[in-house]
Amino acid sequence: GPTGALASIVHWGLYAFMIGGPLTGWLIVSTSKLKIPTLLWGAVPLPHLPVPQSIHGASEGAHSALVWIGMALFLLHVAGAVRHHF
Hints:
Layout: H1 2-31, E1 38-40, E2 44-46, H2 56-85
Antiparallel strand pairs: 1-2
């Protein structure tokens, strides 16, 4: 039904958020004018992605959009869990 479809969409959205958030963050750091190292869990250094600096703005926009989408997905997930519980 529609409830199962919405649950599936939210779950897939959360997976996309968990992958897209770190990737767009990595793009931001890779294209930044400041050469900040990318550290996985604060310890494992990762190389910068070989992408042009011209995508920096788009990367920031995508990362910011993912933050808002992630918050909405989280709220929908909590609402679904509460609805399922009662």
